[in-house]
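TL;DR need structure tokens for one chain.
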Amino acid sequence: MKKNNLRILVSLLLFIAIPAFAEKISIQDAAEMAIKNNKDIKIAMLKTEQSKIDVDKAWSKKFFTVGYTAGANTYLNKNFSKTGEKFQHYLTLSQPIYTGGKLKLGHEISKENLTLSQLNLDKVRKDTILDTVKAYIDVYDAMSTLEVLQKSKETLNQNLKTQQELYDLRMTTKPEFTEAQRSVADIDAQIVEQEGNIEVSKEALGILIGVKDSSQIEIIPFGVDDNFTSTVKLDEDLAKLKTDNTEYKIAMKQNDLSRKNVEVEEASFKPSINGVINYGTLQGQDRFGNILKPRNFSTSAGVNFSWDIFDWGQRKNNVRYAKKTQEISSVQIDQTLDTVTANMRKTYFQLRSLEKSIKALELAVQKAEESYEMEKERYAYRLITMENLLQSETSLRQARVNYAQAKLKYYYLVSKYGAFLD
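>> reply
TL;DR here they are.
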């Protein structure tokens, strides 16, 4: 996959930098760092390099090899006394002439495996980018929730201050004042917990992008157009899955490989023929020094013919097994397409649903803010209890959290939808 194609997934996001931040990592920076530093990607790249070596190895098997053979034998009589010695050494050149197509198929399979490795590398990159986007969003989510909690703390601290003044003037009851204290202690506990969630989320992001000191990570808030589905055509995108989706291309390539493996097993029924040329001291010499004399060198040429005739049906069973494997891979092609199609449709409709929900949740925040202001006024006239007021504040806090989380989920699903066509 080219670098520009890798950015398609992240480019769906509209990045909005907030000037108040100092040193930061944007979501696009995080994706590029993951591509460069992630260990899963490095492993997949090394496996691709191994596949390239396998192609070279399979190619070289089609051509001649040269070997050297040397031997020494001592002959003994029945009393184990030496009666003579024989020495020989020679070079052998062996060239495959006919293998029933096994060498050709082996080279083709190695190239298919290289393509499969490259596709798997693309998939690892894509999955890593998605994981990075999710991890980045998790940090953003945790930080957004912390901001909501801190905003609530300001409100609750102000409320506690008011209650303290009223209690000192004997204008409120002890239970009312105690409830105000409890609400502040509770929000403090939630803030501490959320700060821990931020550190954990940053650590997960740091592992993906290769940053050891994850506590130093500062993210940049971002946003996307909330009408993403209006810019896509689902039916056209579904039709592109057969040409663009990585998982489907992997399934197709695996089917091609299984088909060639059937041909390899069928080729085992055919004989093998090698051309052989030997040069050196081919006949045994009775003196070691004689094997080194050029006048004793000779050349021989010939053909080696081998054919496995009977093996109790082992090769036949290997062919049957390979054919069943090929049938399985054929079914998996359809299975992969069905799964990817269903997931893409599901993601699309989740996005459409969220587009409606986000608007409703935004209105819910506005309503909760208005309700809280009204409850504060009612409490000032002692028309409601402190518990009622704090419940209204809790509802406002949850409405803000729900709205922020829905938007972040929407951002992730936008990236996920784009990944289906990558």
